[in-house]
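During the second half of the funding period, the structural biology subgroup turned its attention to how the target accommodates small molecules. The most pressing case was 2-phosphoglycolic acid, which had performed well in the primary screen but for which no bound structure existed. We therefore specified the complex as follows and requested a full 3D prediction, including the ligand pose.
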Amino acid sequence: MRKILVAANWKMNTTPTTAKNLIKAIIKEHDGGNYHDILICPPFTSLGVVSKNIENKDIALGAQNHSQYDNGAYTGEISASMLKDIGCKYVLIGHSERRVLMRESNDVISEKFTTAIARDLIPILCVGETIEEKERGETKAIIQNQIDIAMKSYDVGKKARFLIAYEPIWAIGTGLTATPNDAQDIHNHIRSRLKIISKELAENTQILYGGSVNKDNADALFSMPDIDGGLIGGASLESSGFMAIARQKNK
Ligand code: PGA
């Protein structure tokens, strides 16, 4: 049975000082309640303070990106081993803001996905289509291509864990969300794609939905059979709203 994961993507928000306040507020609510699994992905400079504050708490830490290279002369880059050492368990790979704004190609994303696994991080591979691609009816083909390229070096025999986050680009930060049924249709497609590789992989891989998830639409999305949680941007920057999304209800 796959568990629900509610992941916060703080993007380029918070300083170490404000991150400390936000994580403390999240922990305060978390200590008294019944919540789905929670993952916090702060910017690099806030990883240390969040890591320290969630010690001995049932909250996981993740980063938003890392280099495809292991170490050496790559000025300005952060490696997977650095993230591991600071306490990260997960890393977002191929977020659309990196694909579009930082021009990360499917091939670079594939290298990062492979590096994350090699360094014992759990990659969350983000995929999604633009509004134009959606209108042309290309959503499934685009996503399939993004997944196939990212996973081209994946060794199924090693059973390394990863997640997929379906995030339609037109839904990110716009207030527009895919309907639960539309999102379910894409998630089901992703799972059938994974089934071609391995039935076990398809059954065990959590597929998150992202794109304007908030406390009013989260439950309907998470109740769909192939939606195993969410990747939350804007609504993760305020503790009570985020924790309302993460609060456990019956599936
Ligand atoms: P949003 O962002 O919740 O603000 O739409 C989601 C994401 O980009 O991961």
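Two results from this model are relevant to the next phase. The longest helix spans residues 180-197. The mean pLDDT is 97.
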